[in-house]
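This protein record is not my work; I was only asked to verify it. Where you disagree with what is written, explain briefly why. This is what I was given:
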Amino acid sequence: MTTEQILSFSVIAGMMAVFIWDRFRYDVVACCALVVAVALGVVKPDHAFSGFSDDIVIIVGSALVVSAGVARSGIVDVAIKKFFPNLNSVRTQMALLMIVVAVLSAFIKNIGALAIMMPVAFQFARRAGVSPSRYLMPMAFSALLGGLMTQIGTSPNIVVSRLRGEMTGTPFTMFDFTPVGGILTLVGVTFLMFFYWLVPERQKQSNSIEEAVEISNYASEATVTGQSTMMGKPLAELLRLGDGEVVATAVLRGPSRMSPFPDIILREDDSVLLEGRSAALERVVSSAKLRLSGKALNGPGKVEQDLISIEAVISHQSPLAGVSARNLALSYTRGVNLLAVSRRGERLRERLSDLVLKEGDVIVLQGARTTLPGVLQDLALLPLAQQEIMLGTQRKALIPIIILALAMISTALGFAPVAVAFFAAALGMAVFKAVPLNDIYKAVDGPILVMLGALIPVSDSLRTTGGSELIAGWLGQVAHSLPPYSAIALIMITAMAVTPFLNNAATVLVMGPIAVSFATTLGFKPEAFLMAVAIGAGSDFLTPVGHQCNTLVMGPGGYRFSDYPRLGLPLSFLIVLVSVPALLWFWPVQ
C-alpha cells in the first residue's frame, strides 16, 4: 500500500467518523475533508473544485426546484382529495407513496419519480400531523429498489448490461432484471412499511426565519362565485379541503349573518369568514375556486401584473391603525387588496371591510411585485421576515406537470442527459413563473449542494490513488476460495460498500470485470455475479451521498448522516439475504 493510498483511506475514514459523530454540520465537515485532502496531496489542487461541476450537483439542485414547482401547482392537492380523501393512516399513506415511487422508478429516472411524489409526502405529513422525515427516506429507498426492476431503471443496470454484451456477446434485455428486482422491491417495500420508525422523527435542519414566525390564525373573507365547486354543497365539505386547519366563523348572506353550522348549503354570493394558516386558507380558496375580498387587479382592460401576496405588521406609525379597511379603500387608492388579518389572542368575526385595524395586527396584502414594496414603505408596514405567501396568488396548475413530463420523456428517449433535462426543467419553472424567482434559491438547498461538491473529489481520491484496485485485489484473493453463494454475497457487499465513494456506474465498471473473472476462474456462468454487482451498486442505503435520491431528501427531511444506516443497514442485510438465493434460482451458475 502506497503512502497516497494510506492517506486517502485515512481522510475518508476520518470524514466518515466525524459524519457519524454528528457534532458539526455536514457541509462544513465535507469542506474540511476537502481542504485536508488537498493539503495531504491526495486531491490535486486543480481538481479540488471539480465536484461543483459534477452532474450530480446539477441534478439534485434542479430536482429540488422542479419538486417545488410541482408542489406549488396545486395538482397534488387535487389528486389527494379526489383519489385518497380518507387516507389518514401514516402506514397506508407510506405504502401508497413507496409503491408509486417504486413502480415509476422502474420506467423513469428514479430521482424524477421521487421529485414527483415528494410534494404528496408533504401533504400527507401535514394531514397526519407528523414530520415529513417519516416518509422521505423510505421513499428514497423505494426509488432505489424500483430502479432494480428493469434495464433502464438505474445506471448500474445499463452499465452491467453493456458489460455482459462486451464479455459474452449477449447483453441483458429490458426485463431480465425484473424477476430478482421485483422480489427485492416487494421485500424491501414491505420491510420499510413496518420498520420506518427506525429513523427518528426529524425536523428540517435549516429552518428559515419565515417558518419560525408562521402565523396560525389568519382571518379571511371568501365569496362563493358561479364558478365555485362548492356552490350548492354544505359548508362542511368546504372546510374538509383545509384538512382540519381551517374553521369558519360566520356565513354572510346578503344582510344576514348566520352561524357556521356544517350543514349550511352554500349559495352563490355567500361570503364565508375563514380562519387558519395562510397555506391552509390558500388550499381551500384555490380548490373551491372562491373569490377573496378586494377587486381584481388583473383582468380584461388591465395591464397584466406579476401579483404577489406578502405578510406585514402594522407599526405604531402606520396610518392604517385605527381605521377600517372600508374607509382605507386600499384597492382604489393604493392598488392593493387586503386578503387576511391576524390579531394575537383574538378570533376575528367581522367582515374584513368593517374590521378596524390595530397596531400589531399582521395583515396579508396582495399587489404587484414591482409596486408592493413601495406601498409597504408608504404605509409604515413591516414585512414579516420578507415572507411571500401563496394566498391570493394564481397557481399555474398544468405548466409544472408539462415541464416535468417533457424532462422525463427526454431522458427516457435519450434526447438529453438527466442533468441537462432537469436543469432545463428547473429553468422552465422560472421562465413560466411556476416558481417565483425569489423562491428559486430558497428551493435549492445550498448546504446539500456544497456537501456534494466538496465530497466528490475526496471520494474520487480512492480511485485516483489506486485504492479501488487495491480493494479489488484483496477481494480476488478471498473470493476464489469461496462457494458460489458466498462469492456472490461478497461481490454484492463490496459493491454496496464501494458505491458511496465511487458513483454507482463507476462501481459497476470496477467490480464487473472482477465478478466475471471470479466466475470464469471457478468455472461458473457470469450472469449471477454481474447481477450481484448491479444490485449492490444500485442499493446504497447507508449514506446520503452514494445516490442522488438519498441526497435529495436529506435537507427537506432534516436527516443526519447517521440516520441513513439506522434504516439502511438492516435493509442492506435483507437485500443480500434475499437476492443471493434469488440470483442462484433465476440465473444458475452451472
Remarks:
- The first strand starts at residue 218 and ends at 223.
